[in-house]
Amino acid sequence: MKPQPLPANLTTSHVEIDEQHAQLLAWARALVLDDPAGTESERRRALAFLLFYVERHFATQEAAMRDLRFSGFERHRAEHTALRGQVADIARAASAGLSLAVGERIYDLITAWLPGHVHEHDSDLAAFMRARKASIPPLPGLDDLFEDEPDLPDWMAEALAGTPER
Ligand SMILES: [Fe+2]
Ligand SMILES: [Fe+2]
User: Fold this and answer.
1) Residue range of the domain that includes 126
2) Which pTM was predicted?
3) 3-state helix, strand, coil in the chain (%, to 5)
4) Are 122 and 28 spatial neighbours (Cβ–Cβ below 8 Å)?
5) Could you tell me if residue 35 is inside a domain?
6) pLDDT tens digit string along 75-85?
7) How far, in Å, CA of 161 to CA of 78, rounded?
8) CA 22 / ligand 2 centre spacing (Å)
9) In a domain, 25, yes or no
10) Is the residue at 7 inside a domain?
11) Nearest ligand atom owner, CA of 10
12) Which secondary structure element, helix H or strand E, spans residue 125, and what is its range?
């Protein structure tokens, strides 16, 4: 999934954080492609990557904050945790069938949440990391995810459990 350039209200001073946000939005968009050839299994694949990406993106930021003793760590992590919960709720609903409407709910949630989070939290962290020349590790692609078969959280495994094509 090729990311589109980030809009100005989403850019931070940190290249890797911006790259991860662009990738995250690209996979959110993949959930709402109203392509007649689009199938539930393709949406499910997009959801798999998106869920994985959200989780890993948050985890890498939280690890960086902890390592660098970033003062806004707890507040920042609390926002991540809240979004994790909201995504999990919708993803659980997707285990009953990942319709375009469910895809749109997830897309709307992510795109409504991200600008405020970037403005309030990620931009401060980005500036802090940039000043210390700190980087975050690159995230593996979808193929790596399935090759390694990591232990997925229950809610994610549930959301990814195959449902019949409709
Ligand atoms: Fe972020
Ligand atoms: Fe964040």
Assistant:
1) 40-160
2) 0.81
3) 70, 0, 30
4) no
5) no
6) 999 999 999 99
7) 28
8) 13
9) no
10) no
11) 1
12) helix 123-131
